[in-house]
Amino acid sequence: MKLDKFHKDFQLNGISFSTVNELLLYAHDFSDEVYRFLETWFSIDSFIYVKTSGSSGDPKEIKLQKEQMIQSAFATGNYFNLKERTTALLCLHVDFIAGKMMLVRALYLGWHLDVVKPNSSPLKGLKKKYDFSAMVPLQIENSIDLLHLIKKIIVGGGQVSKQLQNKLQDISTNVFATYGMTETITHIAVKKLNNLLFSQEGKIKKVLHQEYYQTLPNVEIYKDTRNCLVIVAPKISKNVIFTNDIIQLISDTQFQWLGRFDTVINSGGVKLYPERIEEKLAKILTTRFFVAGITDQKLGEKLILLVELKTNNVLEDKQFIKAKIKKIASLSKYERPKEIYFIAAFIETPTKKIQRKKTLNLIDF
Question: Which pick of 12, 119, 209, 236 has the fewest CB atoms within 10 Å?
Fold first, then answer.
């Protein structure tokens, strides 16, 4: 694959291009962000540097091979059956890997790509229909009434809440959660979140979402001694990738994500997985929140709940939330937060992920 070429069917905002120079000239006048990426992409270097989101630590730059990014694009195209002339919408920041990969897919799969401003409501005012797009959960949440304009959407950049999954069930769009990171050049596995049917005792039943992630072709997975996911994908990475994601291995190609190894809370000898607890709390909390562990003399670590909420009635709201938490039958006594803290605004990354450690530091314990 020559890096100074692109697919003959590729279009950007409805415009076709004969040469790289034509494309760069258009991008220069259209978007600084898109132009910077394309200029780097079509340079003589065989690699580019990509910034991580910084949600689990300080952002860093990672070196990715362009050829491996193209292979990732082909894997997505094959898995979702997205051939040339697929109409696609780019509504993510091109400074990060998910946005860059939408451009790479379009360039080498021959898509007709439109670019809109990457805000929290990207479909507002849109009337055109598309085959494919990629979004973050906040964009999905704010676009529920317009999602029917897109046939297939992949969601990354954060967990999709139970409430949001429920809202997705009555729309025609096929929505897929993705598992991946900058090191894996976006997703290496997906799971469908809506429009699912299965057969049981001869009857067709509807389920809300798949429990398990399904790997893309040419991806091998296994667990290490910490029960964390290990990824072997030679077409997109020369190195074996050891993650901090605790999983249950279902098969050679399927896994269930349980939580992060570096966020596990050891409270009185009991291991608590924040992400699993948050999934249960999402049944009663409608505002943003997360749980964390703080040092405790008796327990070693104490489970606390942080809620993003401006409130004048802290005591009243705490009692209200505690009463609702007691009604969640699936929460064990260890999974019930010992303290509740309110914060006016969580600290976020540029891609709207919650920076948990920095937000936690806002509290004066």
Answer: 119
Helix, strand, coil percentages, rounded to 5, for the chain? 30, 30, 40
pLDDT score for 1: 54
Residue 150: both structure tokens together: 């897109």
Q: In the chain, what are the domains?
A: 11-260 (3.40.50.12780), 264-360 (3.30.300.30)
Predicted pLDDT of residue 283:
84
Q: 308 near 343, Cβ under 8 Å?
A: yes
Where do we find the tokens 């667990």? 223
- Cα separation, 362 vs 353, in Å, equals 17
**Average pLDDT over the chain, rounded to whole?**
90
- φ and ψ of 20, to 5 deg: -60, -40
Half-sphere exposure of 233 (CA within 13 A, CB side): 27
135: left (phi over 0), alpha (psi -120 to 50) or beta: beta
Regions of the chain short of the pLDDT cut 50: none
Q: What is the structure's pLDDT at 120?
A: 92
Give the predicted TM-score (pTM) of the model. 0.84
**CA geometry: angle 273, 278, 282, nearest 5 deg:** 160
